[in-house]
Amino acid sequence: MTVYIDPPTWPGHGRMWSHLVSDVSYEELHLFAAALGVPPRAFERDHYDLPSHRYADAVTAGAVEVSSREVVRLLHVSGLRRPKGRAQTDPSWPWVPRNS
User: Fold this and answer.
1) Where do runs of H (alpha helix) occur along the chain?
2) Which of 67, 1, 16, 77 is nearest to 46 (CA)?
3) β-pairing verdict for 43-44 and 47-51
4) What residues contact residue 46 under an 8 Å CB cut-off, 6+ apart?
5) pLDDT tens digits, the chain, 100 residues: what are they?
């Protein structure tokens, strides 16, 4: 499982934010976010918005640090990029864990 995070350089709501993405699947991303305790409401189209104070938590849990440009490139190459304004059709969301 590889999940990526960019630096917290995106301002919003009085904070700085990072983007947490997967280059494999939304399911992988949802699993990682759930394990971190990131609320589902933080998921936006193709990534999770993560406040700067949670950046180190994500890296410690295994997120790979990359640039913001690399986050976008990874989403495009994987086919998981969902630009604003496109229909949101993600069959894995709302995500519900599978029983093992």
Assistant:
1) 26-36, 55-60, 68-78
2) 77
3) antiparallel
4) 21, 26, 75, 80, 81, 82
5) 689 999 999 888 989 999 999 888 888 999 999 999 999 999 988 889 999 999 999 999 999 999 989 878 877 677 666 666 554 555 554 544 444 4
E-state strands within the chain: 3-5, 10-12, 15-22, 43-44, 47-51, 64-65
> Nearest Cα to 32, choosing from 54, 5, 61, 8?
61
Nearest one of 40, 41, 44, 50 to 86, comparing CA atoms: 44
Q: Which of 11, 23, 24, 20 has its CA nearest to residue 61?
A: 20
Please give the model's pTM, rounded to 2 decimal places: 0.76
Task: Report cis status (omega within 30 of 0) of the bond before 94.
Answer: yes
